[in-house]
Each structure stands twice: as structure tokens, then as C-alpha cells.
Amino acid sequence: MTKTGAQVIWEVLAKEGVEIVFGYPGGAVLPTYDALLDSSIHHVRVRHEQGAAHMADGYARASGRVGVAMATSGPGATNLVTGIATAMMDSSPIVCITGQVNSGVIGTDAFQETDLTGVTLPITKHNYLVTSADELGPVLREAFYVARSGRPGPVLVDITKDAQNGKTEWVWDDRPVRLPGYQPDLRALPEEYQRAAELINNARCPVILAGQGVIMSGAMDILREFVDMTNIPVAETLLGIGGLPASHPLNLGMMGMHGEVWVNNAIQEADLLLAFGMRFDDRVTGTLSTYAPNAAKIHIDIDPSEINKVVRVDVGIVGDLRETLEILMPAIERGDRNGWVDHILEQKSEAAERDIVGQPEGGQLYAAHVINDLWKYTNGEALIVTDVGQHQMWTAQYYRPDKPRHLITSGGLGTMGFGLPASIGAKMACPDEEVWLIVGDGGFQMTASELATCRQEGVKVNIALINNGYLGMVRQWQEFFYDRRYAGTPNVNPDFVKLVEAHGLTGLRCTERGQAESLIQQARETEGTVLIEFQVVQEDNVYPMVPAGAKLNVMIRRPEPNPELASEV
Amino acid sequence: MLQTFTVYVEDKPGVLNRVASSFRRRGFNIESLAVGHTHKPGISRMTIVVEADGFTARTIEANLYKMVNVLLVENITYDDKVIRELALIKVRTSPENRLEIFQTVEVYRSKIVDVTTESVMVEVTGPTAKIDSLVEVFEPYGIIEMVRTGVIGMGRGPYAPTISPEFVEAVVPEEAVAK
User: Fold this and answer.
1) Is the ipTM of this complex over 0.95?
2) For A418, which DSSP code?
3) B65 and A304 in contact by Cβ < 8 A?
4) For FRET with A227, which of A350, A473, B19, B105 sits at 20 to 30 Å CA-CA?
């Protein structure tokens, strides 16, 4: 049947199971927007294209499905760039569709022309420039396939206006996509599995480093089985949180720069590290030359280029983590490592709880208290989205989810402004979940324009705004390493309650801990998006912390008034 | 040490850019890169030489493999192979030294492809070391200009790189070939 390229776009999206597209129209994408009116797909008009990319990303992370963002050429497309780079660093499957000027004027610096395939080359898993309607169907199918398969990632399809307007004979081709140069699943050799099994069976002090790969490959159940059988404790990366229930006795919590001391100690003392779907980010390893000096290392990852990239490993297995663990399991012996586990847990004891309890209240509000309260009053079941900074680390420490895909956060790129749009995307992907956005006063203002999108879509996101009047994490570094010279970090903020009210949404304010419970409950019961501004202690810090250049377990500890913590091992 | 890769890629617009961009982004310095068609329509072959240790070479290989348009990557550094480079060298001549230069060309089994009263252009093929050596010999006469293709390489014996059946019947859209 003869269709226009624009019609083909929406039909392919529908066939790929897309229900929602986040986008912003403009000149070069007009034909596609015209055809939108005849499609059943819901379009969310964002307030800035960066928001569209983050919403698609949040949608993808919450649901595991591919998120879709759409924008026009030139400035519309370049506004997507931060969102695409964010998705690339965190392996999030999104497809971005951009309009492009007519193919005849490409290269002439036409109005709103940007070489977007050139711009996004290093920050996409793959990208395409489509100049004829005939190519559109196959290319879009490929784009979805590439985005979601193997190590997922963002794919950009740049479509010229004449390709959108052009006529083509199009039929849906449901044969598998054939990409001869693309091999997302590479199976490891049996010898590798054997060597891995030997190392595991002989290890006395092993630690599992669980990354986002656990969640992406759906390896939660088999990981738990593996852990229960071998009695090996698990440290999580930021994006790996939720891969094993936080309440599991062998889940040590987050490792790395702001990981707890017992977690990093365990890694440094280990005789074997099992890296499952993680990539040894510098925020996780600290100084490489002193990282886990006594440990043999097994690395399982779906991306062959991650093996031996920064940490030299003894065994590298390339493959889907769930499938790999299924193959590995029969060769693994039941283990009793109680001595090792007790040694770690002794250091842990009640330190995290004590930290919360230990802080003097005196009418002041601490961010750690707020987040712990939020965890308590939502029964730890909310889908949490964060922005980037101190609140993000406090969330990773004190909101302990038992389910995967319940902590959505920008890890690799650390994108401030990610939170609000990502939380909208997450809520639209999972309307039955209670979604809470935990966000700082700095990052919130980067994409606060999307409050209008909340109102427009009638979407209910609960926002816990942790307002400390600073760009807190940067201020913390200035306090520690730049002699408290607070350059550029103090915030002159708007009245946040009035700001959300101006958007037709509900704003609440919390200044002391006693109010937290009732305000949190009020927010949960109120229809539509609600923001609670928590006015917290201004110069509070995230502890513990590995300073740059230090060994992983040489950390800046919590200061007084937590004397028992200062003496923590 | 110098690592030599043979890379089969789809002959599509922008593929060279993708490969080059990947090297640039990860900070791998390309010594030489040569690209041209193969006997299979729609498939090009690159020979890339990079200064790298063994671990880095492995990373380079894996990063190339990740690219959707890259069909096959082989590190042929340690293989039994033939490596060749082509150079055109324009040398200044005088009636006194012309014969001497002609003899040198003979010794190197190279060819004179252009002659003027003041210069000759020499075409030479061979491994990089041979070309380097000829350049050194010509240096005292005065080299006016020179161009080299970069190395191309191929393993010896009646085999091609092990290629998957998928690769052999790689479907290449006609419009991609036309471009």
C-alpha cells in the first residue's frame, strides 16, 4: 500500500509496541507531526527536547521497553544531545527520531541544519541518516533492534523532510532483522567457564560486584540462587541497586566513592571479585593501582570491549549475564564462607542506622533523615527517581529497594536535570507504581519547565525537593579540597511552593522532621503532581567518601557528633 | 609495538568516519589506514596499523567489533602475511647523477614512471622498511615530493579470514552500493 514516509514512521512505531512518544515539533519534522493525528500513539509535548530524551530514558529504565523521543532538526535535535549521552553512558535503550532538512540542501548550511549523525556519532550505539521514504521502514526496525539487543543503548534516526513527505510501497516485514556485522551475543569458550568455576569454588573471601547488567538481563532470580548457594556477599554499583533485594542478608549495599566502609573493605580484602554486568567505573574502583590487590577477577559482561578495559581480569566471559550464570551454575559448589561473611558484617553492624539516629535534630532537618523517612513511610516500595548530587548518594545509601527497576538515576554521565523528566517518563511507563522524585534545588531548576508537562499530562509524580541552598556536592568538594571557597555554588532560589502552584500543582513545605510523615502522607493522597520542599541543613556532607587518588578503603569518615562512627573500622 | 588489523566493513556512507572516530575517542593513534573495495560488492576492506600493546590491541579489536557496520576484524600482527605499501617519490636529478639514480631504481626493483630534465618520479612497492630505505638513499639528491598509500596486508596460504555464513551472504541494499 502506498504511504508517505511520515505514515510509515508511526506505523513502524506502533508495530514495535510503542505507546508513548515524547517530543517537540518543528519545521523539519512537520510532515511526521501531521501524520501523528492519524496514529493511536500518545504524544507527550515536552517543554524542552532534553526533557523528551530523559523522559524516553526514564520510560525505558522503568519498563525495560524502548523509549522514544522526537525532535526537529538543528536546535531541536542538538537539545537532545545531553539526554542521548546520558542514555549511552547508562546503556538505556532509546530511539531518537529527528527531522532533517531536505536531502537536496544538506551540506549547504540550510536553516536549522545540523549534521546530527556527525554530532551524535560518539554518543549513540548507532545512528542513521535516512534520505528516502523507501529506507524508512527497514531502518526504523533496525534502530529498535539495535537499541534493545545486546548491550542496549540509544539509536538516532535522522530523517530528511523529503523522506517524510516521499511516497513508498510499504508492508510490515516481520522477518528477523539481519545485520551481518552486528553480533550482540558472543558465547564464551567452555574453558573459560571451567576456569571461572575453579576460581569460585576455591575462593575463601570472594565478593560479587553486581552491576546494572543483573537487572538488564533479568538475572535477579539466578543471582539470588547463586548467592544463597555460595554464601558470597554482594556489593552493588549505583545502577546495580535492586538487582538483589536490599533486605537480603548478603547484600552489602553500594560500593565505591560513597559506598560504606565495610563494603569497600570487603573488596580490598577479597581474594576473588566476581564482576557481574558492571564496568569498573572510576567511581567504583578508586585508584586502580591499589584496587583489590589480592583478588583474582572474573568479569562477565555482554560487551566484549569492557573486558580488560580498565581492570585486568583473570577470566573474562562475554555474554548475557542470566544465560551465563545458568551455564555456570551446575559447576559451582555449595559454599560455607561464614567466617568471611561474619568478618564483613561485624564491621557493618548497625552503622547505617546509627548514622541516621546519631545526627542531632535540634529542630533542623537532615537530608539523610528525610530520605530514610521516605523509605519508611512508602514501605520501601516506591519507584524512586533521582537527580544528580548529594541527594542522589543519600538516596543510594538510605532508600533501600527490594525490587529491580525501582531506583532510576543518571550514573555514568551524572546529568543534573535528569530527575524530573525521567520521573515523568517512569510514571508514564508504570502508571500503577508510586513514583517519587528525589531532587536537589540545583538540578531541579535545570529542567523545572517540565512541571508544565506534569500538569498537561495529569501525571502524578511526588517530588521530594532537598533544598540546601547550594549545589551541594560541588560545595562539599569545595569544603574538602578548596578551603571552603564556595565559587559559584550558592543558589538564589525561587519560592518553590509558589513555582509549582503557578503550574497548577500542589506545593508543600517541610522545615522540621516532625512534619515529614504527615506531609509525605498528604503528598501521596493528593491528586496530581505534588512537591514537598524539604529545607535541610545547608552545609551537610555525604559520608563516607573516598577522596580522589586514594585507596578505595581509605575514606573520609563521618565526623562528630557520631563518635562511634568515627571509630568505625 | 605496531599492531596490524584487517577490518571488513559495509561500504556505506560514513563508515570510515565511524572507524576513525572510534580510534580518536579512545585515544588510539593510527599509524596508517588504507581502505578499498573487495571482490564482494558492498564490502570494503581496511588495513589499520596502530601503535599499541597487547591489551590495547584487544580493546581496539573489541571496539571495532561493536560497530554495526563492521563485519569482521582480524589482528594479523602475528600471522604469516604479506605486507605492502606503494610510494611515489619525485627526486631532483642532474645530468651527472641521473644514471646513478636509474641504477638505484633497478636495485630496488622499482620503476621510473615520469622523467623531466630536472626530475624523475619513482614508483616503489614493498614492505615499509624497503620504502624507508629507498627514501633514505634518495634524500641526498633532494626529494621534491612524496606520497605513500599506507600499508595493506594479507595472510599467506589458500585461506581468507574465517567468516561467518551470515557474512558471506551479507545483504547489502542496492542504494548503499550506489552511493
Assistant:
1) no
2) -
3) yes
4) A350
